[in-house]
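Need residues for this backbone.
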């Protein structure tokens, strides 16, 4: 069968009516939506990059449109308001915050600084690789322990591996691609103890989606003066992956070492969009609710297909389909749906991002055909 686009698929499935306008564009049914805000109909349902399909909110979008007036300016002189807002949100002083062009830039910068010239970085695998791959490019040595049986970071094993060769421990919590979190008390205890011996990096890109109430961030340890760096992003719950806004929280002496090494600026649209995002609680809550609904749909379909999955604290779900993930990517693309790439060594698992309910129905239809 040749590739079909999403509209064709929805029509075939009899689901096209409400969501598709006559112009072939899809109206995003989100709160505070700008009149006429249309999202171009994409022929492929993309569930492979953990983007927020409900974004941008009207408020964030309007702030970015307004900021285009300022696009002639170099941005660093205008970082102040966002740094102040983030310092207030995180409960730190502004010299604890480093703005980066998407948290990936913060991850790479850290990987470069701590991995270069043979620096050892301890982590688990599979996990998010931006920091680790970059460190490796500059001579870093990655010491990666397997995840435990629940596909969670094995902190006991990581702690055992720390030695005087270790330059950093990298934790991704919640973890990408598994969607798991470590026990809250163990996480804090681990970071407190291990940061006396080496630097600990806590990638908290998905922390907004954590389903446990009051699950801790590691920012309080930064405030205690520990060797801890935390990364956060506007790419996920705030839906701003396309304009690249992220930040690190760390002790001022660490931030000031990193600052001169930052390679690219956040642009003026990203700065004002992020400020608007911090005030848009309606959209934040909306994103979380829609994400929960999409996850529930994935769980239901996986149950129907008799597949194991991990209850996720992120905007994606890891499902054990039993099929090699690179083959599954091809099989799903035949039906117009792109799912996540393989994550060795868990290659018979598939990471599927959440999307709109139309996206989820397209994924369900494709899965049921592929596994018929
Ligand atoms: C765990 C994790 N950290 C960081 C990022 C990078 O996000 P960004 O560079 O858009 O802030 C991602 C992106 O998917 C991620 O999954």
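Answer:
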């Amino acid at each position: 069968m040749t590739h079909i686009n999403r509209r064709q698929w929805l029509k075939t499935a009899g689901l096209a009516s409400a969501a598709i306008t006559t112009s072939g564009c899809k109206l995003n049914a989100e709160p505070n939506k700008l009149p006429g805000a249309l999202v171009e109909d994409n022929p492929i349902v993309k569930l492979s990059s953990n983007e927020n399909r409900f974004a941008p909110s009207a408020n964030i979008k309007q702030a970015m449109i307004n900021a285009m007036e300022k696009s002639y300016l170099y941005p660093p002189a205008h970082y102040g308001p966002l740094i102040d807002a983030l310092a207030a949100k995180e409960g730190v002083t502004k010299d604890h915050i480093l703005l980066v062009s998407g948290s990936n830039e913060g991850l790479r910068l850290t990987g470069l600084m701590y991995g270069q010239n043979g620096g050892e970085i301890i982590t688990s695998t599979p996990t998010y690789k931006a920091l680790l791959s970059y460190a490796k490019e500059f001579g870093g040595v990655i010491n990666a322990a397997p995840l435990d049986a629940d596909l969670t970071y094995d902190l006991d094993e990581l702690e055992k591996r720390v030695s005087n060769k270790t330059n950093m421990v990298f934790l991704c919590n919640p973890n990408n691609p598994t969607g798991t979190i470590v026990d809250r008390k163990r996480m804090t205890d681990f970071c407190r103890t291990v940061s006396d011996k080496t630097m600990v990096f806590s990638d908290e890109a998905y922390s907004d989606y954590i389903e446990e109430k009051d699950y801790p961030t590691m920012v309080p340890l930064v405030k205690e003066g520990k060797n801890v760096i935390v990364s956060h992003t506007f790419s996920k719950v705030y839906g701003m992956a396309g304009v690249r806004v992220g930040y690190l929280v760390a002790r001022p002496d660490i931030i000031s070492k990193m600052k001169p090494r930052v390679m690219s600026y956040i642009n003026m649209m990203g700065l004002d969009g992020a400020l608007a995002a911090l005030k848009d609680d309606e959209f934040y809550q909306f994103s979380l609710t829609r994400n929960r609904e999409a996850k529930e749909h994935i769980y239901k379909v996986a149950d129907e297909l008799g597949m194991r999955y991990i209850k996720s604290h992120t905007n994606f779900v890891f499902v054990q389909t039993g099929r090699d993930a690179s083959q599954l990517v091809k099989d799903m693309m035949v039906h117009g749906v792109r799912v996540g790439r393989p994550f060795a060594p868990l290659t018979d698992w598939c990471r599927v991002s959440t999307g709109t309910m139309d996206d989820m129905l397209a994924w369900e239809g494709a899965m049921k055909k592929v596994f018929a």
